[in-house]
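[audit] Reproducing an earlier prediction to check determinism. Same input, same settings, fresh worker. If the tokens differ from the archived copy the diff job will pick it up downstream; this log only records the rerun itself.
[audit] input (75 residues):
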Amino acid sequence: MDLSVPSHANIEYMIEGIKTKLRMASGAAMQASAFSLEQYEDIHDVYDMVINKPNLSISEVEAIVSELGRLRKPS
């Protein structure tokens, strides 16, 4: 998958990867459709950081979830 190309499919792939890595019990609350292509670079940055860290502390997980919440499209 070429994540250098912004697309909704790539956003979905990255969000699913983040949810898996964070072992989110409430992963259903974070849907890829809630994110805009305008936020693609920010989502990609979060994805790269999450995937490349072997372990995440609780405070890191909280910060990541908070950042993803900030990146979501307004309802």
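[audit] rerun output stored. Observation attached for the diff report: Residues 21 and 54 are 10 Å apart (CA to CA).
[audit] end
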